[in-house]
Structures are given as C-alpha cells and as structure tokens.
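agent> call fold_tool(seq_1)
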Amino acid sequence: MTTEKTTTPVFDGVLATTAERRAFAEKRMHEYIQHGVPIAQSIVNKVLNEVPNDQIAKATALNFKADDNGITYRAGDNHRTMHRNALGQLAVRAGIPIKYLDHLMETGNEWKQDLLAHTLNQHFHNDDHRYLLRSVGDETRAVLSDKYKRIDCRPVLDKLIASASKAGALVVDGATSAIRSNLKFVLPTIFEPVPGEFVVWGLSWTNSDFGRGANELNIFFGRVWCWNGMVGEKAIRQIHLGRRLGDDIAYSERTLQLDTDTAVSAVADVANHYLNPDKVEGHLAAIASAHNAKLDPKTAEGALAKRTSKATAKSVVDKFNSADVIDLPQGQSDWRWANAISLVARDSDDGDRKIDLERLAGDVLTKHGLSIN
C-alpha cells in the first residue's frame, strides 16, 4: 500500500517558499526553452526536407521478395525496401496477424521471410485494388488506399510557426520517427493552477504522411519542474481520407494544393485562437480537479495496460509509487498519475511511443474537463 507524499520539495538546496518555487519555475521554463529549441529545429528541418515520393500501383503489379534488406518489392521500374509501417499496412490488408508478421520477420530465419514474401505475392496478385505507395529515398514507408488525402505539411508547418511567433509562442521540443513528427509550441509564461504547481501552455502539432495519424493540433500543458508534457483535446483534426487518386499523380496536384490550403487556413485560425494567455485560465480548472482526485494505482494500471502494454503500465505505476516529489507532484492523485505517464514518455527514445504516451497523459486531464471551447 502506498503512502501519501507530503514532503516539501527542495530546489537548488533551498526549502522552497512560494516565491522561491515561482523563481525556480521561471528558471526551469527558460532551461526547457533552451534545451528544446534545437530539438524542435532539427524536427522542423526533417519535416521540410523529407518529402514523400508518391506512386500509384495496381496490387497485381507488386512483386515481393526476401533478401538481405528484409522484404523488398518491385513495381514497374521501382525497386525499394519496406519500412515496418508499410509491411504492417500490407499485412492488415492481407489479413495477416501482426504478431505473425513479426514472427516471420525475425532475423536469422530466411525461410520465414521467404514465406512472407510468397504470402504477400499470393494475396496481392489476386487483389484488384490500387494503392498509393509513399517512399523516402529507396524506402517505402507506407502502402495506402488510393483514397488517401495527401496534405503537404510543409506550408502547414510554415504557417503554424508564423502564427505561433506572432502570438508570442516558441517552438520548443517535440518527437519524431520515420513515419510521424510532433512539435510543441508554448507561450513563455508560467501558470499556477494549484499552489506550487507551475505549467506552460501551448499547442502540440502532430502529422504523419504515412498513415500513422491525422494532421492534428492539440492543446498542450507542460509541468515546468520536470518538463513532463501532456497533450489534451484536439483543437483540429484533418483525416487523410479524400477522393480517389487518378493514375497520374501529377494530375492530382491541384487537389493536393486545395487540401493543403484548407489545412493552412485551419491551423492559422486555431493558433491565433488558443495561443492567447486569456484562454488558458479556463483550462486550469482541469488540472486543479485532477490534483484533488484520488487515484487507485492498481485500477489505473489495468486500464492503462489495455491501451499500451503491461510493461509500460508497470513502469508508470513504479514512477507513481516512488518517493519522487520533484519530477512528480505530491499526492495519490490523477494529476500525479498523468505526470507519471508523461515522465515515462519523457524518458523514452522511441518517438512514436513518446507521442502516444503524452496523449494518454492528456486523456487523464480530459476526463476532468480539459476540452476545446
């Protein structure tokens, strides 16, 4: 059985008074900005420079093979390797269980990969659909429906950065993988929803050009003691599902431009609306409510395991039950639980896992009334 944490935090060797806590929070916020800006800039550069190459192909034209690079394929004149995300999408369409896919992809078992290539050929050579193949360099990262709505995220991101800058927000921190990117935009101002608890407010932008998620803007809170971030309700979500693409990708460029223009306008409106300190006060009550809500770790662990994994849920519980009152707020509360999830996210080197866990942390606040208004 866990005990209530009531230790008074010590910051820089000082038993903190209210004034000292605020001063330390200001210091931590500036450290967060200094640390996060280079990370964000590298992600921005990646998004701007990694432009997908698109090809429409009939399923019957896909020829799969197992070699030293794993599963590769030919479609017309193109010969490319396949990212795990693309293989997973193929497996879903072919009705191949993902666990079985991973079993066949084990290294050191050539016959298993040969079997997978043969199985994919049998399925797709008897499939009359067409697919959008999205690649970067020689690697295909997604195999998508030909109804996939392509949005050029580069002008969307350019507009978001400009709108955020106009509102006084900075792009600080984020996470990225080969198939998804996330950036945080925060106002350089601290807010105190609960005495002694300080947070920054902003927006979290996430996009995948490879079928791993929509173009989304979410509201974002970051706890400044520890840089724990929580991604809350969606301020905008544009699903990549549109009209069927023609055989000639170039012919669809006008549709791409129209869809991109719509996305650019939407993110500008949202940024201007939510990156406003006056909007923040209405959302702080959700943190206060979570801070006052008692939590049963065992029940919470079971619920979290259903949405992540047992190992991840156990890691969160271990953080929650620790004596830490710096990286985590005091008490057996939903607010501490949200921060425990976020702390596990913060320590993860996997960009996709980090993005997913920050959203789960935000879900804890959503049930306390953190919503778009």
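agent> call fold_tool(seq_2)
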Amino acid sequence: MATPHPAAWPSDDSFGPFLPGHGDLTLVFENIVLAILPAALVLLLTPLCLRRAFRDRGSCSIAWTFYVEIVLVSGCFATELLATDIWGASSYVPRYASKASALMCLAAVCMGAVLVLGRIRGHWPALPSLYAATTALFDLVRMRSYILRNMGVMAAVCLATTLIKALFVTFGRISYQLQSRSALLRSHSILDWVIVTLTLGFKNTIDLQHLPELDPQSRSEVLLPQLQAHWAKSEGKHENFQ
C-alpha cells in the first residue's frame, strides 16, 4: 500500500493540525479512541464473562443462527488479521495502527470465546453484540479517513468489517428472539441506547461556540496581542543574529 498523497488531505479537518506523514494526528486519535480503547475494554471484560459462564449454568438451546454468528465472528477476525498484515507490508504505517489491528484481532477472539461458552452454558452475554454494534460505527469513521487519504485497501477492509459486524448484530437479535425473550429485551435496550448515543455524533456538528469557555485569558482576542509581541521580539533577535 503506497504512502497517501498529501494533496488528498486538505478536505480532512476533523481533528488536529495537518502533519503529512507519520504525524497525522487524526489517525492517531482514531486508532487510540475508536480501535484500541474498545478492544482493550473487551479484553478486560472477557474474563468476567467467562467466569460467570463457568460459575452458573442455565438451559442450553442452540439455534441455527448460532452457527451463522460463529462464521461472522471468524470473518471479523479474518478482516482484522488482514488489516494487521497490510500494515506490516506497508511503507506507510500511522502511529498505533498496527497495534490497533492486533488488539482488534484479540477482541474478535474474545468475542468468539464469550459467545460460544456463553451459549453452551445457557447464558446470553451482551458483550459481543455491544462491541460489534459500537465498533461498526467507529469503523465507518475510520473508513472515511482512509478514503480521504487515498488508502483504498484499508477503506475496503473497514467496510467489510462493518458489514460483518452489522450482520452479526442482526443475527444476534434473531437468536435472542428465537430463544430468550428476557435476553432479547436486555439486548434491545442496551444496543438501542448505544446506537442512538453514538449516532448523535453523525447527525450533529459540534462547533467551537458549543463548547464552554475554559478561561477568559485564553480567548484569541487576549492571546493575539501577546503572541504578536512575542513574534516581533523573536524576529528582531533573528535579524540581529544575522
């Protein structure tokens, strides 16, 4: 995968300054907040889910949708593994990108473990569906960033991952509906709250006027004269040095 051409970048002003190359703060932010943090949270919660499944046993009933979910989790793992391999072979690797892909691979493994053990032990853990629904929206954001940087391969991988996770959530709801009405209600309430909350960011634009003022002394009208005086002083020193 070639290094993205800087000419494709001016349309992306979603976060941070423009620093073509490895100083791309937008991708750093997205890799940490939209990939590493959700995956790390799944890794932390997986032992708790597995412990609960080992400790308590309910009535086990496996529907046909369970096998579809297993295939979809495997597909999610495959796409994340492909992303890790692409970053490893690429001449341009944004900071934390390879770590984010590796952690998301582990998160996909945890999804499968929680899903399989939970269903076999008669539990209906919400963690896999919750993680899939949340990160599917995050993957759309990352896909946009890759498209703006002419990184079509990574954008295609993100799109494939998003579709797989959307199908996983859909078949998960079908499984709940077929087997457990109480689990269906819990899943609906949690997923609906998460999806509605996250989609607020897609429907609304937060501008500077929406943010509270941190300090009156930090306003641009106050800082600009101070900065101009500092710049003039620095230019004078530079001229004297020459």
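agent> summarizing second result for user.
The chain has two domains: 11-205, 217-241. Residues 217-241 form one domain.
agent> awaiting next instruction.
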